[in-house]
Amino acid sequence: MPAVTVDSILDLPRVQSPALDQLPRPVRSVTTAPSGFEGEGFPVRRAFAGVDLADLDPFIHMDQMGEVEYAPGEPKGTPWHPHRGFETVTYILDGTFVHQDSHGGGGVIKDGDTQWMTAGSGLLHIEAPPEELVVSGGLFHGVQLWVNLPSHLKMAQPRYQDIRGGEVGLLASHDGGALIRVIAGEVAGHAGPGTTHTPIALAHATVAPGARLSLPWRKDFNALVYVLAGSGHVGADRRPIRMGQLVTLGAGDLIEVTAAESQESRSPSLELFILGGAPIREPVAAYGPFVMNTRAELVKAFEDFQAGRLGVMPENPHTFLPRDNQPGHQVL
């Protein structure tokens, strides 16, 4: 980590210096993600645990996957499983993950790539390390985010976006002390490659020791900051933050974060996953792999899955054509 970087950050477009009348968003809460296991047993931190869904809207769930150094034979993934009613966004900082779904999407993502899957009306999918990583072991670190869909898009046609690390928008903070990778939406006037059903913005920022990031943020979006690695302070009152903590912010003009002068040796900078969006403000009925609006819709999702209406496993799992020639594959 970081997965995507540049030789000279000073050559990048700059975020404008904050105006005197722009106010940092105040800190509403800082929570620490508990550790657990997902799928066949890979370690995760549950980033949103203990936070009210109303403060997260339009997001539903987020896991920090790893950071873990696997020994040979240890890498694990998830078995085939269904989804309906939302989108999954998987961002890989280190390591390699293979994805395949029953709608024809899939591919290999690694080192700064993002896989964006709109489950919509429903599909089956699997995520797993490639065979060579299972054999060799190695470093693995990523984030998986669930983005809700409004009721009129719950049954949208599934789609898949394959976002290469080299496609993300890159910009520097006003003083060159932070590198911002814009994955989706627009940040400080710079757009990321991800196409979103729900208006959101996603970014990964690396803040050098002692540097401050003042990032303009849309007033109609909520704002969340998750610490992937390192330590620092957030907000005008300089609340301390460290790896594995989620910050929810109140209303204002800027997200303001400062990296601590001294960072741990394995993470020389403060690494942040910054996200926000326009709240959907609809009822949420979520259980297991489905995110709907009502209990009746959840029951229908389970019935459709059990009846095979969400798709079937491909005949040749984990067999991929070149990324631009996959059947049903869409790069949007």
Automatic annotation (TrEMBL):
Required cofactor names? Fe cation
Please state the span of the N-terminal signal peptide per the UniProt entry: none
Top-rank lineage group of the source organism: Bacteria
Ranges for the Pirin N-terminal domain? 43-147
InterPro entries noted in UniProt? Pirin (IPR012093), Pirin_C_dom (IPR008778), Pirin_N_dom (IPR003829), RmlC-like_jellyroll (IPR014710), RmlC_Cupin_sf (IPR011051)
Q: How is the cofactor bound?
A: Binds 1 Fe cation per subunit.
Query: Do the record's keywords include Nucleotide-binding?
Result: no
Q: Which UniProt keywords apply?
A: Iron, Metal-binding
For the keyword S-adenosyl-L-methionine, the answer is no
Q: In which residues is Fe cation bound?
A: H81, H83, H125, E127
User: Which ranges carry the Pirin C-terminal domain?
Assistant: 203-310
- Which GO molecular-function terms appear in the entry? metal ion binding
Give the family per the record.
Answer: Belongs to the pirin family.
> What name does UniProt use for this protein?
Putative chromosome condensation protein
Q: From what organism does this protein derive?
A: Phycicoccus elongatus Lp2
Q: What is the lineage of its organism?
A: Bacteria, Bacillati, Actinomycetota, Actinomycetes, Micrococcales
